[in-house]
């Protein structure tokens, strides 16, 4: 009981709000994270080289959740370190490079955000051997990622339209049946209503269907928690774990 109260007091002090059962404790520091979870040495080195002295509140709670294999719906303000909050646990889950095609896909609403995520992911991957790709027009060919390619790639960062374009080719120029983690970044924007041919919702639905590995897990990160996308986003999620900001400084995991 005393541990439960301490864990909640810690969350309150950092304005972390969680919903869901058996939510693992937040970590107070990277040392705390390394003590409780087995993070590879390359990742510890890269966190240190990035100059990250202490996890941000979203990282304190989202990293342990995802390390426990929990699906998350997370909300935290812009610039609060959401990217590392999902990249770090994904790298731990993937363990080492494999030649089975993409095992993690991160979908961002804009090319700029995708490039930013790609850069953060690449620097956290240094020394791991993982192959990270950002989907650009030039690479959008079956030769790069299709069944006849080497399959030597692990993590894909993409906008929905680029990925759907590849999936829609006959035969599909990319296969997503090995995906273990599908992350929607800026998820509120991806679930925004729009004209039927340009809105993201249909594209996201196609991407969800293409990631047909029965073990695939979903994580949704956003700076705002609107009602519309929350109901669309979660039918496959047994847990809603995330963070929402009532004010810029508040974070909620639910
Ligand atoms: N623990 C940390 N300590 C210090 N800086 C960090 C930490 N985690 C991430 N950062 C840095 O903070 C900046 C913002 O991080 P990031 O882009 O992931 O935020 P975000 O929440 O995804 O923002 P956005 O909503 O704009 O995508 C980046 O430069 C990143 O390298």
UniProtKB/TrEMBL annotation:
Query: Which ranges form a coiled coil?
Result: none
Region annotation (Disordered) ranges? 230-254
Any Pfam family matching the protein: DEAD
Keyword Nucleotide-binding attached: yes
Motif: Q motif; annotated at 32-60
Any idea which UniProt keywords this protein has? ATP-binding, Helicase, Hydrolase, Nucleotide-binding, RNA-binding
Q: Which residues form the DEAD-box RNA helicase Q domain?
A: 32-60
Polar residues bias: start-end ranges: 230-248
Show the SMART domains listed in the entry: DEXDc
The UniProt record lists the EC number as 3.6.4.13
InterPro entries from the UniProt entry = DDX52/Rok1_DEADc (IPR044764), DEAD/DEAH_box_helicase_dom (IPR011545), Helicase_ATP-bd (IPR014001), P-loop_NTPase (IPR027417), RNA-helicase_DEAD-box_CS (IPR000629), RNA_helicase_DEAD_Q_motif (IPR014014)
Boundaries of every Helicase ATP-binding domain copy: 63-243
Q: Reaction catalysed?
A: ATP + H2O = ADP + phosphate + H(+)
Q: Where is the signal peptide?
A: none
One MF term in GO for this entry?
Answer: hydrolase activity
Asked if the Swiss-Prot or TrEMBL record annotates the protein with the keyword Ubl conjugation, the reply is no
Q: One of this protein's GO BP terms? A: maturation of SSU-rRNA
PANTHER family hit by this protein: RNA HELICASE
The free-text domain remark for this protein reads:
The Q motif is unique to and characteristic of the DEAD box family of RNA helicases and controls ATP binding and hydrolysis.
Primary role: RNA helicase.
Identification of the protein by name: ATP-dependent RNA helicase
